[in-house]
Amino acid sequence: MSEFKTIEFLSDEKLIVDPYGYIAERRAQCPMNRDSDQGLVAALGYDAALAVYRDAEGFSACNGTAEPFLELPFKPEGDDITEQIRRHRDEMPFGDYMSTLDPPHHTQVRGLLSRLMTPHRLKENEEFMRALAERQLDMFVADSRCDFFRQYAQPFSLLVIADLLGVPEEDHDAFCGSLDFQLAQMSESQSIPHNPLQFYEDRFIAYIEERRREPRGDVLTSLAQGTYPDGSLPELMDVVRLAVFLFAAGQETTTKLLTFALKNIAESSDLQQRLRDDPSLIPAFLEETLRLETPIKSHFRLASKTAAVAGVRVQAGTPIMLLPGAANRDPGKFENPDEFQVDRPNVREHLAFGRGIHSCPGAPLARVEGRVSIERVLARMKDIKISEKHHGPAAARRYTYDPTFLLRGLKDLHLEFTPA
Predict the structure, then answer these.
(1) Treating both helix axes as pointing N-terminal to C-terminal, what angle do 154-165 and 363-380 enclose, rounded to 10 degrees?
(2) What are the backbone angles phi and psi of residue 21, rounded to the nearest 5°?
(3) Is residue 138 in a domain?
(4) Which residues of 32-52 are buried (b: 16+ CB within 10 A; e: fewer)?
(5) Is 259 a member of any domain?
(6) Per-residue CA distances from 231 to 217, 228, 238, 330 (Å)
(7) CB-based burial of residue 356 (10 Å sphere; 0-12 exposed, 13-18 middle, 19+ buried)?
(8) What is the domain count for the chain?
(9) Ramachandran area for residue 266 (φ above 0: left; ψ -120 to 50: alpha; else beta)
(10) Residue-number span of the structural domain to which 157 is assigned
């Protein structure tokens, strides 16, 4: 098995900008690469990643967002550490969040989403998105230039998820400011404190407690009064952490999707015109954008049982580093994987939203946000180009990428265009 150097992968500036050659070399040697220094295994192949995603019994999500340098609060013993994980779960970062839960608790908590992700609620949210997209574009279209990341993608994504969750409008600015601060801290330290989302927890505790005392007939009331499938009322913190998880995760990943989508459009006049001529291609365009530039850089599993993946023995207690962007460029799954193909026939098989019980619950929302945004941008902005002043000429582009180990995305995207 070849050696995957996690510290090199996460800290080398060249690999932050373009990690795909590094990944391809190591995947060609073995789809499961061990990092002996960090004691983890990186799943670089599509089939290897899919096997881990689908085996919730053999691979716990308890360390899902806390690696790569997490010290377990226990010493793994034997070929089945399921009981050890259960006893020590509360000692691990994000231990009570949906993204780190295992069945049966995960099944219960995910069931609460049925109160939010109803067809009626998503339709209402889409109507809000269209009006919001117009308002955001009104703020800069007349200028013929913008930083699309900060002037559209970031505020749009924040306000969409805030609307879905029913966050009061007067709290929107505070939510956005706190998330920016936490991400800046993570970028500097390449680590996560035990609970970096305490600010949001405190806000949602107040919201949910108030709605349980005094129902208002709003979205937060629906969330506060949601019950498990057996009819029991969830613990307050189960509801709070579900809301916080959706807010933080939904905002960040969609912001990055929208920014990469506009980068692709601005870099190719032919693609831009093709989407204008045939808007029905926009959903497939977004899927290929997700495949080629996956917003989730890495997340993790802990082998709860000794198993073999892609012919490699993985001992119970071994952290598995899942790299969806690596799986999505596996040539064994996607032909010419480094090329953008808007009509790629198997594009919906990408792993940008994961697979298995932890597949992204906000995927339908993100897809609608993307479709609505691209439709309105193309209607309001013509001849969209990358600003050479900020990003250099076509032959020597300069883009700045988020350096965190969890996320891959641009930190800014300066565009020039003609108002429609």
Answers:
(1) 130
(2) -65, -40
(3) yes
(4) bbbbeebebbbbbbbebbbbb
(5) yes
(6) 20, 5, 15, 44
(7) middle
(8) 1
(9) alpha
(10) 6-419
DSSP E strands: which ranges in 68-222? 145-147
pLDDT in tens, 267-285: 999 999 999 999 999 999 9
Residue matched to tokens 């009981």? 83
Q: Please, how many CA atoms are within 13 Å of residue 51, restricted to the half-sphere of its CB?
A: 18
Per-residue pLDDT of 66-96, as tens digits, reads: 767 778 899 999 999 999 999 999 888 877 8
419 CA to centre of own chain: 31
User: 347, exposed or middle or buried, with CB in 10 Å at 0-12, 13-18, 19+?
Assistant: buried
Q: Is 34 helix (H, G, I), strand (E, B) or coil?
A: strand
DSSP 333-370: TSSSTTS--TT-TTGGG--TT--GGGS-TTHHHHHHHH
Q: What is the CATH number of the domain that holds 216?
A: 1.10.630.10
What type of residue is 406? L
> Is 90 within a domain?
yes
CA pair distance 378, 388, nearest whole angstrom = 21
* 1 located within any domain: no
Distance CA 386, CA 390 (A): 8
Interacting residues of 219 by C-beta distance below 8 A, sequence separation 6+: 116, 121, 164, 165, 166
Is the link from the previous residue into 119 a cis peptide, with omega within 30 of 0? no
Residue 29 CA to residue 304 CA, distance in Å, equals 26
* 300 strand-pairing partners: 321
103-129 confidence digits (pLDDT tens): 998 988 888 877 677 778 778 888 899
